[in-house]
Amino acid sequence: MQQNQKINVASYSSYVKFMGKSLSCVDAVEMYRDIKDRSIKFNVSVCNAFLSSLIKKGKSESSLKLFTQMKRDGLVPDVFTYSTLLAGCAKVNGGYYKALELVQELMSNGLQMDSVTYGSLLSVCASHKECNEAAKYFQKMKDEGHSPNVYHYSSLLNAYSADKNYEKAEALIEEMRSAGLVLNKVIYTTLLKVYVKGGLFEKSKELLKELEALGYAKDEMPFCLLMDGLAKSGRLLEAKSVFDEMMEKQVKTDGYSYSIMISAFCRSGLLEDAKKLASEFEEKYDKYDIVILNAMLSAYCRAGKMENVMSMMKKMDDSAISPDWNTFNILIRYFCKEKLYLLAYRTMEDMHSKGHQLEEGLCSSLMYHLGKTGAHSEAFSVYNMLRCSKRTISNALHENILHILIAGRLLKDAYVVVKDNAGFISQPAIKKFSVNFMRSGNVNLINDVMNAMHSSGHKIDQELFDLAMARYIAKPEKKELLLWLLKWMPGKGYAIDSSTRNLIMKNSHLFGHQLIAESLSKHLVVSKKVKLHKENAR
Question: PPR repeat ranges (predicted)?
Fold first, then answer.
């Protein structure tokens, strides 16, 4: 169709919708940007199809960026555009406030909220635990003449579950019945979530029986909600009883119930029970997902079963399951516990390369242990990965890595740390660095270090100048650097002492008598001024 120029609005919209999740985020964005015909490129149906594709792929941030670009280039969005983007706001950080901006923009463009848009907004409120706002928009929707359906009620129930407000949830159920709506599996399950979150476990058990009687508990989700709530409330035996009941009834499971119980056993220190359940799952089922694999991996790591840990990692590879943030953290903590610090470092490298956020506490601990075992450059690499991963890190981390770099004689890297973060590093630490650098750092950078320290407000003492001069005198070929430093010092209020002056004069033939004499005369002027200032201060 492209070769014969038969592509139109319907072609693009249908193709993107048909490809669905098989179309990668990058491919979708590139395909959109490659559209030459502006009448197609900024057609609202085509734009909506591409935005929806990104949302379905979980790329809500990318969809919002593309939407901004589309508007800048000429798109006039419709109500469906905003409904699509609102749905994506449920799964992004700060999504509630982004949703409010979209709603404000929608109204500013003269559009009206419809039942679909309200449904998306209610879902965002529920996801971000904005219970009162969800109730407000639900009422506003009704006031504007929109009749709420099961989806709207389900979203509001979800908001009540986050707020643990079972009384409002029960009132909402009665409202649904009065409106003649049939309570489906989603509604009953959401109500169960409300009871569990509110700690109403007896009501939860009764409702679970009702779900079973209605045929709504043929899969594990309702059981898992109750099990998870009981386990996290310290009622492990009751949670295990629900799990055993589920197994006896041969309820269909995807492994989530196992992951809940394995994690619960681990939290309670019952590592053998966790390991036994993980082994049972391995024997009975031949399919895995990241949740169950993480639970089993955690159980084996806590039990110190390296062979089983390696087996789980192989299963992930064989099943083409990509490790998530939790997977990496479980492994890094385990390798650190086993004192396999370089393996922990390589795992963190892999984690960072895949775009996962690094945890500062874990990075700090790994940096410390790498430094203690002589892996100083690897420790510095962890520090840099963390800086790339986080906008801000604690001030203490800069000084910690500085000490590690000094111990490892990585003075050039230490200089970079000091230059960029001098304000966050203590004066004793800076002094320790500067003394080490003057003694054995790159001689070509001595003047840069002096200048950086002075610019950061650090007062350079005579010891550092003595060390620097001694390094230069030992290397006559560095004549220009010595002369630059001698010229720089008086302008900043510094002067060498008599012993260093005598040493320089003794070796002046190496650098030029006249140049040395001129430079030292300026130092004498500064010395007299400093001496006079001290006398007046008395």
Answer: 43-77, 78-113, 114-148, 149-183, 184-218, 219-253, 254-284, 289-323, 324-358
